[in-house]
Amino acid sequence: GIQKLQAINYLETPVNPKTFARFLRYSPYLDKIIVGDYIGTGDKLCSDTLVEYCLLFDFEKVDFDCALRVFLESFWLPGEAQKIQRIMEAFANRYCSQNSEPFAHPDAAYIFSYSLIMLNTDQHSNQIKTKMTFAQFSKNNRDINHGESLPNEFLEKMYNSIVRQALAIPDRKPGVINTQPLAQHDTQIALYFRPISEPAYNEILLKAKMEPIDFTPVNNSIFDIDLFSIMWAPCISSFGAVYESQEVEENTQNLILEGCMKCANIAAYHNMNDTIDQLIISFLCRASNLTSESFISSTFTSSKKAQKALITMLKLAKLHVNHIKEGWTNILICLIKIYHFELYNFLEKQTEFNNNDDKKVKET
Fold first, then answer.
1. In this predicted model, what pLDDT tens digit does every residue of 245-301 receive, in sequence order?
2. Whole-structure pTM over 0.70, yes or no?
3. Could you confirm whether 80 is annotated as catalytic?
4. Do residues 284 and 334 lie in contact, with contact meaning Cβ atoms separated by under 8 Å?
5. Which of 12, 60, 80, 211 is catalytic?
């Protein structure tokens, strides 16, 4: 493959490791398995390319787990132990060259990165029934930092990060990121309709910092449906993550619900019924807490956020009644609980609905 690229003057002759590392890092149509296998090979060109490849990552003041996530997402980690060792040693050297803490030496970062990968397999493999506790994880990493133990607060943060959010690996298909755990790559898991965890959010911020994108202005709407098809799922996930945060301000809540309605309007315009169903099922019903198995009526009546989410869902259902399919099940569950627990009186206090809307909801 390298010879063919040299023949068409795409790569230099002889190969420059720095140039080739950029090619492996940023070319969108490469098989990620081949990338991982190449940079893990032990000959001089591959080793030099691996060093240059790691230099393309900016890990300064980045949490160790977040750095590891972004690094492992850029290629498929090979299965051969020696190749894994070379890659993770290069990663540890790069991280420690930009961060003086918490590791006293790159060897400690290398050992700890291995430990996180093992923890990831332990926590997210269905074949392992008894999961590793924090005490066991802490014991496994005792005295790895040049004879000293890593700070307990740091260990706990790393442990909780991996437990909450599995390490991601890239899919072989160019441009697609598979969010399944390393030990469960063949299991299909939907990412977008789970709440965004803190490590996942930090990973997004780091990627935005490291991978600037050039935009081409387009003065017509020919790509609207394609762009919306890409954006709607992350938007719903973001709506839920921010809205369910305890510290979110009321103005932000209102903006999220307004964005939800606009998202539904765009989806209805393009007849994207699945999008509207997911807005109802994955965000609004969840935010109202009415579909929760542990639903408590007092929690609902005291939560303005839950009430406003329900109001928005009913407004959406009324406006786009012909575009809702699977979402009707969740809507009916909400309405049944409102009737069963006699919660409909709270609608009278809401300003979003007019009197006719209140009457229709109660009658329903």
1. 877 888 999 999 999 999 999 999 999 998 999 999 989 988 888 887 777 777 788
2. no
3. yes
4. no
5. 80
